[in-house]
Structure formats: C-alpha cells, structure tokens
Amino acid sequence: MRAREYDEDRFDRMRRIGWLDVGRLRASRCLVAGAGALGNEAVKCLALAGVGRIDVADDDSVAMSNLSRCALFREGDVGRGKAEALASRASEAFPWAEVAPIESRVQDIADWGYGAVLGCLDNVSARLCANSCAACAGVPYVDGATDGLRGKVQVYLPGGPCIECAMNDSHLRIADARFSCAGGGVPFAPKAAAEITTTSVVAAMQAREAMKILSGRRDLCVRGVSYYDGEAGTMETLGLQISRGCPNH
Amino acid sequence: MPQPLTEERDMTVRVTIVNTLSRSSIRMELEPYDSVDDIVDTAAEYWARDAGAYVLRKGSRLLTRGQRIEELNLSDGDAIELIPDPEGG
Question: Is A207 helix (H, G, I), strand (E, B) or coil?
Fold first, then answer.
C-alpha cells in the first residue's frame, strides 16, 4: 500500500492504536449528558474518534458567555437549545457521525440503552440521577467535572464503585446548586471561573475512557477518581472503594 | 486475689487536616465513632469555606461516606487532605 492510500482512510491513525477498535466505535451508540463546555469537547472527541451515534441531552439554551469554552457553538446559536445547537453544529463538522439532540434534562431520559454515557453535567443532583440510571441499566458511566483550573474524571463500571460512592453529606447539601458556565436560567453563580484548557483536559480523558469501553477494553479503564490540577500541571488518581450504604450497590 | 489492672487504651487519634487550596492545616482530635462526614463538616466550617462539596484524601485513597475513624487505621500524626470537589461542567 502506498502512503497516499494510508491517508485516504480517515481513521488510519486510530487503527494503529492497539487496543482501539474502530469498527466497534463506528457501531457504538453513546449519550453525552450535558451540552455545555464539557459536552462540546466530549462530542468533538467522540465524533473525531469515529463513534457512530452520539445523543446529546440538555434542556438549557446557549448564552453568549458560553462561547469562550464551547468549541462548536457560534454567535448565531445564542438563544437556541444547547442540545439542538450542538447536535446540528457537530453534524456539520463531522458528517460521518450521527449526532442527535435530546432536549430534556438527564432526569427525564427513559432510554438508557447506550454503550457508554458521559456525564458533562453541572450539578450534583443530575450526576446522581445519571449515575443511578446507568447503574440500574448496567451501562458504564464516565463522569467529568471542572472548577476553574481543577477538574476530575471518574469511570463507573457495573459492579465497581460508582459516582455516589465518592460523595458525602457535603455533596448532598449542594445537590441542586448548579455550577454552570451558562448565564440564562442558572440560579446559582459559578464557584470559580471556568476556562477552556481544563475543560479540554477533562473532556478528552472522558472521551478516551469511553473509547476504551466502546472498544471492549474495560480492563484498561482508570480505576478510582482522577484529579487534575491545571495550576500545578498534575493528574493523580485516588483509589476508591464501594461505599457502605450506597443505594446503587 | 487482686486482678491485674487493665491497660486503658486512649482511642483518640490526633491527625492533621490539610487544606489543599491554601496549604494551611489544623490539628484535629478524632474519636472512634467520628465519621468522614464529621471531619469534612468540621474542617470546612473551620476554614469558612463556601458552600460546596469536599472530599477527604488519606495517602492514595479517597475516604468514603459513612466510614468511621476506627475503620480507617489512622495513627497519631497522620495527615488527611481536604479537597474541594469540582462540580462544574
């Protein structure tokens, strides 16, 4: 095969990664819950990687302040539903991927028949719901979160510790507070400035973990909770055990 | 016949709680029945942290909700870190 023929395959470089199964990714269906900053980055990575079908769920609308962190939104999208805007922009940019909007909260999603779910949410309540639904359906769930220059990623695999296992009473007290990058309709001011580099790191790791899952390589997934510190330039994964009394176990 | 005196064991553990944001620390005396939630609440209140979620780290592991001090195998002088838990998206 000549070099030119290698380069005619969109996914050629991906096929060179030993554990990555492009064929399985192309046949996969996954859910991105949340179409804000993390959701934009996650959809971009998953679509570029070749995931065949991506559903995007969000009931919020695009604000001008989102545009500094949401790669796929445009000024013309301000006021549109985030899920619809992200799905249509992603479909334009990545026509080989089927990206569909679900204009509702994750709490209202009934169909959990996905190969993997990525949590790109901005509040504890939605995370708990996504985590419980994924656990109930036996679907792997990859949660991501950011706060300024800090972020975290956690992979839930059925049978292992879940997102709720890593929580305590302090999480439950703020369950309904939204730590969002958005403006309109958000009743809670963000704790800290959000910025794109942390978002990119966290969402990229979420997408990579999802790619392992969708490739049938759950054995390679990161165990525990990974904390990213953008100021120090460090990433560290802390061990986690199933929490006694966690309702998902 | 007199019975040998039973050695009374001090079950209180004195640990250092480190605030990972400011790197300041406090000493805390923990009883066996104290829980992870108790430590989080006390430390967050001491530093007057904003309402938010926090987790505790001991070495390379996260301490989970409901764990009690007697289960954590803590020793005097151990350091536990208080980490703000990101929740934004």
Answer: helix
Residues of A in contact with B54 (CB under 8 A): 168, 170
Cross-strand partners of B18: B25, B81
Cα separation, A63 vs A81, in Å, equals 10
C-beta atoms of B88 and A122 within 8 A: yes
* Residue A170 forms contact with B (CB below 8 Å): yes
Q: Is A142 a member of any domain?
A: yes
Domain limits at A220? 5-238
- In tens, the pLDDT along A130-139 reads 999 999 999 9
A195 within domain boundaries: yes
What's chain A's Rg over C-alpha atoms? Answer: 17
In chain A the first and final C-alpha atoms are separated, in Å, by 52
- Span A91-112, pLDDT tens digits: 999 999 999 999 999 999 999 9
Which two structure tokens, joined as six digits, stand for A42? 């996650």
In this structure, chain A runs to a length of 249
Which tokens hold the place of B45?
A: 């209140």
CATH number assigned to the domain comprising residue A233: 3.40.50.720
Q: What is the DSSP string of A173-191?
A: HTTT-B--S--TT--S--S
A145–B44 CB contact, under 8 Å: no
A247 within some domain:
no
Does the beta-carbon distance from A146 to B55 stay under 8 Å?
no
Residue A225 placed within a domain: yes
A145 and B40 in contact by Cβ < 8 A? no
The ipTM of this complex is: 0.85
Q: What is the rounded distance in angstroms from the CA atom of residue A248 to the CA atom of residue A243?
A: 10
Name residue B57's beta-bridge partners. Answer: B62, B81
Number of domains in chain A: 1
Is the CB of residue A24 less than 8 Å from the CB of residue A214?
A: yes
**Per-residue pLDDT at B7 exceeds 50:** no
